[in-house]
Specification:
Layout (H helix, E strand, L loop, with lengths): L1 E6 L6 H8 L5 E5 L4 H6 L17 H14 L4 H12 L4 H10 L3 H21 L3 E7 L1 H8 L5 E8 L2 H9 L1 H6 L8 H21 L5 E5 H6 L1 H12 L42 H4 L2 H17 L8
Helix pairs in contact: 3-6, 4-5, 4-6, 7-10, 8-10, 10-14
Length: about 300
């Protein structure tokens, strides 16, 4: 079972990349798949599938849940969610995962089995050869990399941390989402360093032919070239997905992406270079980021004063 997994910090354009790749007829776009079991488990969940139907009423996900339960041997989604929190939780996940690798536990084996069954159910229902997922979590990537039966192709997706800071502050998002709360630069910088170091650890554990690094800026500047690299890496022809003006070719296949930002719900998606931070991010925030994280940003090819 082939999975192309996008890993890294948040606000790196992962949903756009996921949706574009998911326009391929042989690829199923799952976006932030970790949000699906919670929607199944909560009778009051209002989470909407990318097809426009509530997940709990979507025929695709109803059938996928039926197949998943058949493969697992029960329909205990609450147990699935509990295991996910146990092994992928931000505070407890790494210690439990690393201990379990040294001394395998029945709980981790069960969680891997339930995870694998989800992807197999999606593959059976959708009939696609590859799944693309943009949950981004390094802990989830680690779980998938150690799960028997999963052919993982790992993409460490990187974005200039100053762009991530601006994405966490952009006032346009406040207008679109009432729940949006801008994050201070120091907090986002700390998060960016942590997420990328965790990603680097998982990345280092995979063989060279199963891992690649992609900069968000390279995708935004030349998406066709980036898709060429991704296709060669995952052994799928990803050419021809975009029009000359960088929009997904229509008619695009119906998506059943259960999690991700608002892009997953759009009928028409266009790739754009988002470099607004160069004009709008305050100088003090740029300086703070470079002082704290410049050493890591430089290793990804970023410079203090980009042209």
């Amino acid at each position: 079972m082939k999975i192309l997994y996008l890993m890294g910090a948040g606000h790196v354009g992962s949903t756009v990349i996921d949706v574009v790749i998911g326009a391929h007829p042989r690829v199923e776009s799952l976006g932030e798949a970790w949000k699906l079991p919670g929607a199944w488990a909560d009778p009051a969940s209002e989470r909407v599938c990318a097809c426009g139907t509530p997940i709990r009423a979507c025929t695709f996900w109803c059938e996928a849940r039926r197949v998943w339960a058949q493969l697992v041997g029960d329909d205990d989604v609450a147990r699935y969610v509990a295991l996910m929190r146990r092994f992928e939780g931000s505070r407890s996940g790494w210690p439990r995962l690393l201990r379990s690798q040294l001394r395998p536990t029945a709980e981790l084996t069960e969680y891997q089995r339930r995870n694998r069954a989800l992807y197999e159910a999606v593959s059976r229902v959708g009939g696609k050869a590859m799944i693309v997922e943009s949950s981004l979590s390094p802990r989830r990537a680690y779980v998938l990399s150690t799960t028997p039966g999963i052919e993982l192709y790992l993409v460490h997706l990187v974005r200039d941390g100053r762009g991530v800071i601006w994405s966490h502050q952009n006032p346009e998002k406040r207008a679109l989402r009432k729940s949006f709360r801008p994050a201070p630069a120091w907090q986002t910088t700390r998060y960016w360093i942590s997420a990328n170091l965790q990603s680097a650890y998982v990345y280092s554990r995979l063989p060279a032919e199963r891992r690649m690094r992609l900069r968000y800026e390279d995708f935004g500047t030349d998406p066709d070239a980036a898709l060429g690299r991704l296709g060669a890496f995952a052994r799928e022809d990803l050419s021809g997905l975009l029009t000359p003006d960088r929009a997904i070719r229509q008619p695009a296949p119906v998506r059943h992406t259960p999690g991700g930002n608002r892009v997953r719900l759009m009928k028409e998606v266009q790739v754009r270079s988002d470099l607004g931070w160069m004009e709008h991010l305050p100088a003090k925030d740029r300086t703070l980021f470079w002082l704290c994280a410049g050493w890591l940003a430089r290793s990804y090819g970023y410079s203090r004063n980009p042209s």
